[in-house]
Amino acid sequence: MPVLIANYQKKNVVVNLEKAYTNLSQAIKLSEASNGELEYWDFGMPAKDFFNKYLYNFVSVNNSTFNSQDLQYKYLNGNNCTEILCTENSYIVFLSDGMLLIVSSANFLSDGRVISIDINGLKKPNIVGKDFFSFALTKNNGIVPFGAGNFGISDGEGGSQSFGTFDRDKLKGNNSYACNREKKGYWCAALIMFDNWTIKKDYPW
Fold it and tell me: For residue 165, is pLDDT > 70?
């Protein structure tokens, strides 16, 4: 029974992550038709203003509100997530399908924004790589999962994730963002996508 439950949970994560990525990709394309190409977007706007200008009209929003101070995420390694990539200085909205969309503050990417998705809203586990996944929206690369794309960002600990294609060994490696149960887990969305939208046996579940 535990194996069946775990397999169901993994399948549910993949289905919802793929849905979130597809919907977000479509919303950005629709927004480009109205607001111009990504190259000309104002990525320096406050998070709420950025969402309202570029995303609000192209995603289905549930207008329920909640106190973001009560929302605490953890890294895959179990430590509390205290950086901008979680909820600090971010703008958070409920989507109509129950997911949360989290737009980071403007000072994380110089040429883009970080957009994260909590695929089951306020429900637990609230862990990076299990129900919380981050994507980078950049002028030159569009929407890509952390761990892929020709953009460079620091991991805050002297590392970098600036490599142009998926590299499975790096995604599961020793970088602090790696999809590794000893690390933060930000590269788990990229790992799932690299593995053709599956969670393989070596995924740090």
Answer: no
Strands (E), 56-124: 61-62, 91-95, 100-103, 112-118
Domain count, the chain: 1
Instruction: Kindly report, residue by residue over 12-36, the tens digit of the pLDDT.
Output: 999 999 999 999 999 999 999 999 9
Q: Which residues contact 135 (CB under 8 A, 6 or more apart)?
A: 21, 24, 114, 115, 116, 117, 143, 144, 145, 146, 189
Judge residue 103's burial from the number of C-beta atoms within 10 Å of its C-beta, 0-12 exposed, 13-18 middle, 19 or more buried.
buried
Task: Characterize the bridge pairing of strands 142-145 and 61-62.
Answer: unpaired
Its sign, for the CA torsion 121, 47, 178, 168, is: positive
For 158, other C-beta atoms within 10 Å of its C-beta total: 8
CA 126 distance to own-chain centroid = 13
Amino acid at 154: S
Q: Which domain holds residue 100?
A: 2-194
